[in-house]
Amino acid sequence: MQWTQVTVKTESEAVEAVSFILNDLGATGVKIEDAKDFEKLRPGKFGAHGEIIDPNDIPHLEKGAAVTAYYPQNIFVPEILPTIKQRVLALKEFGLDPGAGEVVTSAVSDENWATAWKKYYHPVRVTRHLTVVPDWEEYQAAQDDERVIYLDPGMAFGTGTHPTTKLMLQALEMTLRGNETVLDVGTGSGVLSIAARLLGAAKVNAYDVDDVAVKSALDNIELNPKAQPIKVAANDLLAGIHEQVDVIVANILAEIIIPLVPQAFENLKNNGYFLCSGIIADKIQVVTEAIENQGFVIEEKMQIKDWYGVIARKPLPDE
């Protein structure tokens, strides 16, 4: 079967938004190439047979990012290209830099699609305790307290090492002490749910509005027996969810965090934590204002380059 490949040349800060646009217009999956994924890599066992390779020798983007979507034959791509271009350039209105926003197309076979993205994905130590490893790589933990998350992002999700994901992995590591109940909103690949369980959470329920994300999360959970069980279901944020939990984590866009804030407050126990990321610098003030106006206390603002994460706490009644 032939697919049409649509590649949007953009900047690192816009990859999640561009991916959403492409998926929203019918893509069966996306591949993300981001120059920043290589910035901190050092020579390691990146070869096909475990040999030491310098990451600089691995073909990759030198700057910026590219999001490639795959459309099946039943979608007439020329018809949706103008919409893709318009929506990508409109990201400026939301404080995101889409970069060149250039859109190019080509044909690709099933075989090329299934393997093209693997050369960009290698084991990465993302926090003190958490390492993300592609499921096709062999990896030996370097320390006793290192937790290894195995992922197969397939064609729908990135590597799990985007700054927004790193921020939430760090926030979970800072917040969890053991036996917590956790809600993961907009779970995507399921990486945050898996991390929460490996860090000691007793129960994790994960939700995503996208059925592709639900399947991806379930597949990745299967790769991590130590993190099971985790419940995954399709849901629009926390609409219709009414349960009191210790921690809610959400790695989504700022515009989606704001309507989530009152839902998170309702579903948290007193003294529970709301962890959120996906917030570009231009949006951090409006997001923190929405969080504080709801009654949360902001314990920590975290930053990696232009991206922010927030650790907020639902106060006790007598505070």
UniProtKB/TrEMBL annotation:
Keywords: Cytoplasm, Methyltransferase, Ribonucleoprotein, Ribosomal protein, S-adenosyl-L-methionine, Transferase
One GO location term (cellular component): ribosome
The enzyme's E.C. designation: 2.1.1.-
CDD domains: AdoMet_MTases
One GO MF term: protein-lysine N-methyltransferase activity
Domain of life where this protein originates: Bacteria
InterPro entries, sorted: Ribosomal_L11_MeTrfase_PrmA, Ribosomal_PrmA_MeTrfase, SAM-dependent_MTases_sf
Family annotation (PANTHER family): ELECTRON TRANSFER FLAVOPROTEIN BETA SUBUNIT LYSINE METHYLTRANSFERASE
HAMAP family (UniProt xref): Methyltr_PrmA
Family to which the UniProt record says this protein belongs: Belongs to the methyltransferase superfamily. PrmA family.
Name of the protein: Ribosomal protein L11 methyltransferase
Lineage of producing organism: Bacteria, Bacillati, Bacillota, Bacilli, Lactobacillales
Gene behind the chain: prmA
